[in-house]
Each structure stands twice: as structure tokens, then as C-alpha cells.
């Protein structure tokens, strides 16, 4: 969108009105630009799995009927691509929903202990061999100012990543709940592959995936952390990460406390 500010220097209410109008238009401009970038990123990202799927379907059509090996390989690869596209779609919907939330204050009460206990049980059901520890330093009445499903969604992405980006024999997730005067502080630490210093700057960007070679086998969309980034922005929280390549990563999520 091409917006030219209205310049009025009359020193009165009309100038004030023009300033308010300019500010509003700049925000609207940013928003439209963001939406455009989003649509263009999404089209770009969907193009790759679609092209792969197209390739496999053509292969199946030509050779797959008579060659059981081609049939097998292409079917498995196609199912994987469809799975990636479905996840991408679900995550994009999650992002879009975050843009339009309008919660009442009474919805924004979250007990982090309850949510993390619930998640830990669920993860252990799916990954029975996972080493998972929870250290809880919260006082019993400490609550976070966030819609509980959003806290759960954020924490789930972090734990999911901690498992996904760790070699099978080092799958260990250490969850720590703490607080300071203003924030509930949740850290998720793993002993996985870690993230290089260069990549660390980009991990919260939409569709960014570090270590493309390995990640091709791991599966993912590069949207999870950008969802958390958007989430914390909505709640005036913070997300940060420290990592040592080959040793592991530690993500810290800070959500304002209810006082
Ligand atoms: P996805 O996992 O779908 O690729 P994310 O936005 O959740 O997308 O993560 C972006 C990238 O950051 C991942 O592709 C991965 O390279 C890196 N990453 C995220 N979490 C971790 C982690 N715990 N350990 C190592 N790398 C990670």
C-alpha cells in the first residue's frame, strides 16, 4: 500500500486530526504489508510440497502400476508431503486465529502448574521412554495472564521441538517453572542437536528451518516458533533462546503474572 502522509501545520485541532489520521494509516499500511508478505510466504512454502507430490503422482501414474518398489516409495513419500501440508495449514490457521483474538479478562487466567502437568502426562503417553523432569518453583497461587489454551499451545510446541531436535538416545526434556515479580517464567531445556549462532537469530521467523539437510528427515514447517512469537506479543510476554551446537537448547517463555 502506498500511503503519503497528510502534512498540515496549522498548530490547531486540524493538525492534531491529521497526525492521528497519519498514525492510523501507517499502522494500516504495516498491517497490509504484513498480510501481503504472509500470503506470498505461504504460497512459496506450499509450492515445494505440492511440486514433490506432483512428481510422485506422475511417477506412480507412469511406472507405479507395474513396479511395486516405485509404488511403495512414492506412496510413502506422497503421504509424508500431504502430512506436511496439513500441518502447515493447521499452523497457519492457528496463526490467523491469534491475529483476531478478543478475550475478556476473565478468560485470561492460567495455572501453569496444571497445564504443564497435563502436558507432561500426555507426552509421556506418546513417548514412554522420554526422560522428562519438571522443577516447579511457583508459589501455589501464582497465575499467568494468558488464555490457558494458548499457554498450552506454546509449551507444547517447545516440548515437541525439544524431542524432535534431539537424537533418539538423548531425548531428555527438562521443564522449569519459576517466577519473578512480573512474570511466570517457563524454561524448556533439551540435550539435542542445538542451534548454531547464525541460525539462532532467525529461529522465530516464519518458515525458518535451521540445518535443512537434517531437517528434511525430521519434518516440520518452520511455523511453530513464530506462533509462539506472535502469542507472546499478544500478551506482552517474551520468548528467548540460548543454545550450544551439539549440546542442546534452552527456550525461555515469560508471561506476565496476574497480580
Ligand atoms: P519446525 O519445528 O516446524 O521446523 P519451528 O518454528 O518450531 O518449526 O522451529 C524452527 C527451527 O528452529 C526448526 O526447524 C529447527 O531447525 C530449530 N529448532 C527449534 N527448536 C529447536 C530445538 N529445541 N533444538 C534444536 N533446533 C530447534
UniProtKB/TrEMBL annotation:
Domain Histidine kinase: 41-259
Domain HAMP: 1-33
Primary location: membrane
Keyword Protease among UniProt keywords: no
One GO molecular-function entry: kinase activity
Mode of membrane association: Multi-pass membrane protein
Recorded catalytic activity of this chain's protein: ATP + protein L-histidine = ADP + protein N-phospho-L-histidine
Subcellular location field: Membrane
EC code: 2.7.13.3
Protein name from the UniProt record: Signal transduction histidine-protein kinase ArlS
From-to range in the entire protein, with total length: 238 to 496 of 496
